[in-house]
Amino acid sequence: MWTLWRRFSLRTLKLELSLFFAQFALLIAWVLSFFVLQETLLSLVGLLLLLSSTLISCLLFWKKERMASQLLIPPFLWTFYLMGINMMICILNP
Predict the structure, then answer these.
(1) Cα–Cα dist 45/11, whole Å
(2) What is the CA 41 to chain-centroid distance, rounded?
(3) Nearest in space to 69 (alpha carbons), one of 86, 50, 56, 88
(4) What is the pLDDT of residues 22-77, one digit of tens each?
(5) pTM
(6) Looking at residue 33, what is its pLDDT?
(7) DSSP letter string over the chain?
(8) What CA–CA distance (Å, rounded) separates 35 from 4?
(9) Whether pLDDT at 11 is above 90
(10) Among 68, 72, 75, CA closest to 5
(11) CA nearest neighbour of 35 among 72, 76, 82, 80
(12) Does residue 47 contact residue 83 with C-beta atoms inside 8 Å?
């Protein structure tokens, strides 16, 4: 987000900024549902929402600046990895 903020004003980045903060909120919701509440199915749904919002952010950032979009690829892959681990925990612990 910083690379976009340097180049564009906040008025032009309303959608990108709100989606970026939504990702942060989804990440906090996943941590709380997985580690505090220990609800693996709920955390899996949260990770699915986080994965889709990261992909949408990546596509929106691509339109403005490609480097900002490329910086979202590692968090996308990490969320995908976490989703696989969470899915296996859901399957193996009914």
Answers:
(1) 31
(2) 17
(3) 56
(4) 999 999 999 999 999 999 999 999 999 999 999 999 999 999 889 989 999 999 99
(5) 0.87
(6) 96
(7) -HHHHHHS-TTTTHHHHHHHHHHHHHHHHHHIIIIIS--HHHHHHHHHHHHHHHHHHHHHHHHH-HHHHHTTHHHHHHHHHHHHHHHHHHHH--
(8) 33
(9) no
(10) 68
(11) 82
(12) yes
Q: What's the CA gap between 32 and 73, in Å, rounded? A: 24
* Residue 12 neighbours by CB under 8 Å, 6+ apart: none
CA distance 13 to 35: 33
> Residue 75 corresponds to which tokens in the numbers above?
């968090």
pLDDT, position 1: 76
